[in-house]
């Protein structure tokens, strides 16, 4: 893949200025391991400046009519759209996701800004009698810290920036140090769009996140990332009782019902499990197949897997790219080794390109023990176990036997049975005969250790506000 070269150093957006730092962090293209850019390594003082600017901007921004804030979000969507080719190229190079997937992420983030800008969180009249009127208002929180992971940098930033700004908050956004380029460039393009200090975007190393969560000047942390980090965020944010929304890891189960047609479900199941090379929080990470058609599903899955090219993200024929970073690559390699060493049968191991890049083959494991690490933990890579079950209660019990509760899916013809099974899964989202469908007006969030709170829809907007109940005694 041709590595892009950035013709100028990347900067951060603080208080309306696009600023550089002396200390920088290298960004690596995971498909060839080349350093493609250097980005600012924000100091604590840089963070303080960004928070102070956001705080200063808050009174004026929060008093503007929602319509005006919405209009600026629409303009942000226009700016991204106008520059989507450049941003997509940055995204593909920093993340390693194939061209079509990078384009889809860009389109999705544009769609998201527009859709959220059209949503409204109106005040509600709870009572209006002769003697009493009660009004429920939603008031912005203040300064929001948005912390984003590396798997969907543009989308997951949009999920935070759009609702936070629409509801009248100001923002400090931190992309992952692994994938800061598209977000920083978007910030540069949007530099003069918002009043200064309303939207700040900063990049940094491992200290920056903890500084943000502990910062006294922040009123909320909207965090997407792993469960382990989410727990640290919650602990650190508790010092000044910051509001938190935590969108965390998952170990989603897909349950294939006894009446499913293996040929029909296999393509959907494959992408449910392997989308983004297994690096999606809601990828199906355990596939429970009824014993009566287990062998057939396994065989069809392998046949389908053979048709998917793993390789250079810029090649239009590529279906799956590399893992995004070395740490994740080493983790998944170690898990595959452990799975092999345990004696589990590897039913399929695909091909990867020779040479550099964090490539891992599509790996399908044949019915490993339920208590193996592969089944119990979130691999976040292209290795998936197919698991055999005998009856429905057993499948539901095994699907729910996890600390995670993000999402799940059910596949089969009998929609009543599928709905019944879906309603018994302890997760925030369940799909029937599809997967990973997200919409700006459908609340999304995790049960158990997959998170706290939701994003999207009216509840997603409300999460960026405090409620205020005003009671008026008329007489
Ligand atoms: P991560 O938790 O390592 O990092 C996420 C972000 O937090 C990054 O920006 C990182 O720099 C920052 N960070 C790291 N340590 C921090 C700390 N102590 N305090 C504050 N911030 C800190 O996660 P990741 O490896 O980037 O992403 C993969 C994980 O994210 C997976 O577990 C995946 O399931 C999860 N995820 C969840 C969702 C969801 O919506 N539920 C979506 C995408 C990814």
TrEMBL record:
Q: Which residues form a coiled coil?
A: 70-97
What UniProt keywords apply to this chain's record, in alphabetical order?
A: Coiled coil, Oxidoreductase
PROSITE patterns from the entry?
A: ALDEHYDE_DEHYDR_GLU
InterPro entries named in the record? Ald_DH/histidinol_DH (IPR016161), Ald_DH_C (IPR016163), Ald_DH_CS_GLU (IPR029510), Ald_DH_N (IPR016162), Aldehyde_DH_dom (IPR015590), LUC3-like (IPR044086)
Which residue ranges does the record assign to the Aldehyde dehydrogenase domain?
Answer: 21-470
**Per its UniProt record, what Pfam families does this chain match?**
Aldedh
Q: Catalytic site residues?
A: 247
- What's the superkingdom here? Bacteria
The entry sums up its family as follows: Belongs to the aldehyde dehydrogenase family.
Q: What is this protein called?
A: Aldehyde dehydrogenase family protein
Organism the protein comes from: Paenibacillus polygoni
């Amino acid at each position: 893949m041709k590595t892009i070269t950035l013709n100028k150093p990347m900067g951060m957006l603080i208080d309306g200025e696009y600023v550089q730092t002396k200390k920088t962090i290298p960004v690596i293209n995971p498909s060839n391991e080349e350093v493609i850019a250097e980005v600012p390594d924000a100091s604590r003082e840089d963070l303080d400046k960004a928070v102070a600017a956001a705080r200063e901007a808050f009174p004026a921004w929060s008093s503007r009519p929602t319509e005006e804030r919405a209009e600026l979000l629409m303009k942000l969507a226009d700016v991204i759209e106008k520059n989507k080719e450049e941003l997509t190229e940055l995204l593909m190079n920093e993340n390693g996701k194939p061209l079509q997937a990078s384009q889809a992420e860009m389109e999705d983030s544009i769609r998201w800004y527009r859709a959220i800008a059209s949503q409204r969180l109106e005040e509600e009249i709870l009572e209006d009698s002769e003697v009493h009127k009660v009004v429920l208002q939603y008031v912005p929180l203040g300064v929001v810290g948005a912390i984003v992971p590396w798997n969907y940098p543009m989308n997951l930033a949009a999920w935070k920036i759009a609702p936070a700004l629409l509801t009248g908050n100001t923002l400090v956004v931190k992309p992952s140090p692994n994938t800061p380029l598209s977000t920083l460039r978007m910030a540069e393009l949007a530099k003069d769009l918002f009043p200064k200090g309303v939207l700040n975007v900063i990049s940094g190393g491992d200290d920056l996140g903890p500084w943000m969560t502990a910062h006294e000047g922040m009123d909320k942390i909207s965090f997407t990332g792993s469960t382990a980090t989410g727990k640290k965020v919650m602990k650190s944010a508790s010092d000044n009782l910051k509001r938190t929304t935590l969108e965390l890891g998952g170990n989603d189960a897909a349950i294939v019902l006894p009446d499913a047609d293996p040929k029909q479900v296999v393509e959907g199941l494959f992408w449910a499990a392997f989308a983004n090379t297994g690096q999606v929080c809601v990828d199906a990470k355990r596939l429970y197949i009824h014993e009566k058609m287990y062998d057939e599903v396994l065989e069809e899955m392998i046949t389908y897997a053979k048709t998917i090219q793993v390789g250079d993200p810029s090649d239009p024929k590529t279906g799956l790219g590399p893992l995004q970073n070395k740490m994740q690559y080493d983790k998944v390699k170690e898990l595959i080794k452990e799975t092999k060493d345990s004696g589990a049968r590897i039913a399929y191991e695909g091909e990867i390109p020779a040479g550099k890049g964090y490539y891992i083959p599509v790996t399908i494991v044949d019915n490993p023990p339920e208590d193996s690490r592969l089944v119990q933990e979130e691999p976040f890579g292209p290795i998936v176990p197919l698991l055999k079950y005998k009856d429905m209660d057993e499948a539901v019990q095994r699907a729910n036997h996890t600390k995670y509760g993000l999402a799940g899916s059910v596949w089969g013809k009998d929609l009543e049975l599928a709905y019944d099974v879906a309603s018994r899964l302890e997760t925030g989202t369940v799909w029937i005969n599809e997967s990973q469908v997200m919409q700006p007006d459908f609340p999304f969030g995790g049960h158990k250790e997959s998170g706290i709170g939701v994003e999207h829809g009216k509840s997603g907007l409300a999460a960026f506000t405090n409620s205020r109940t005003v009671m008026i005694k008329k007489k």
